[in-house]
Amino acid sequence: MPPATRNPEKIFHATRFVFKVMIISAIVFIATVISSVQAEDSAAMFIEFDDTPLTQDLILPSWFKLSFLELKTDIEDLQAAGKQGLILYFGQKDCPYCKMHLEKSWGNKGIVKYTQTHFDVVAIDVRGDRPVTDVAGNAYKTEKAFAVAKNTNFTPTLLFYDVNGQEVLRLSGYHPPYQFKAALEYVADKHFLRETLRTYLARAETLSGFEETELHTHPVFMSPPYALDRSHFPAAAPLVVFFEQPTCHACDVLHAGPLKDQTIIGLLKQMDVAQLDMSLPTPVLTPKGKRTTAQSWAEDLGLYYAPTIVFFSEQGQEIIRVDSVIRFYRLQNVLEYVLSKGYVDYPNFQSWRQKYNR
Fold first, then answer.
1. CATH says 71-204 is which class?
2. pLDDT tens digits, 311-342
3. What's the Cα-to-Cα distance from 256 to each of 327, 333, 355, rounded to whole Å?
4. Nearest partner of 235 among 314, 174, 293, 176, judged by Cα
5. Alpha helices by DSSP H, 48-152
6. Which regions of the chain carry the CATH code 3.40.30.10?
7. Has this prediction a pTM greater than 0.85?
8. How far apart are alpha carbons 293 and 336 in whole angstroms?
């Protein structure tokens, strides 16, 4: 039987089909890479900025509520207007983190419209002198005194109250717009009645095809096992724990920027420094002597943002935490606040900053 002859036309069409598939696959791959790079660039514009104090005073949005700072009255007003809550915005005029929030979040028309629809926003100047009466009727001589009483260590701090005047959420520091919008929805839709903000945010997370599976390393981080107990005997130095996650752009920025700064590294070397993946069941002995896992401990601490940096005293008491975007200037100040034991005389970080003009 003679061998089968090949049909040139079929071979041509088959080759052209394979070539088209290869071209389409290449285009999809390149588009995915470009999309990933664009997403990185987009994220960077929200969390990379100069955090030294501003030289020009900030101007607040004109749509903020003009309030006499009698907050119970403000609650009654929003009830009458059919809104879902009150946001107290604690800020200061030279705050670069406040500037980022006002420009990136409340500079977004969609976020502004959503905020105005569901909330009233009242501004509190953490250095201001106006008297304040809180939702329970307690009177404070100044905004500054009220800010200290509400433990607003960082600006901006946003306190969310529901229609009954109950505080249901606190955002300390600057958060990127996508997280802030999620926080607005979390309160407006009353998700706080059913779940934590961490759980709510986790349900909305999407994973990229290029995600990392390991945390960044750093020479100041201790090696496991993580025996952080200080409940029986005081340690020789304060402790700082970096709670991080893989595929975390804010973590990437922290390691590429502040954690490469020699001044900050020098300050960290004066502490015990641990890094934990807040999504893994890594065994941990906490500063209070509890055996648990990194994941469970993060849940017990109510952490929702990565990276969150938590500082503990030599005796294992939490001093302060940073659970928002942080850059060089703020991180250096917090490290010096802890190392100088400024928290002993000034439990409020802002009071310490004002005292020493930091």
1. alpha beta
2. 999 999 999 999 999 999 999 999 999 999 99
3. 11, 19, 31
4. 314
5. 71-81, 96-100, 109-118, 143-149
6. 71-204, 226-355
7. no
8. 29
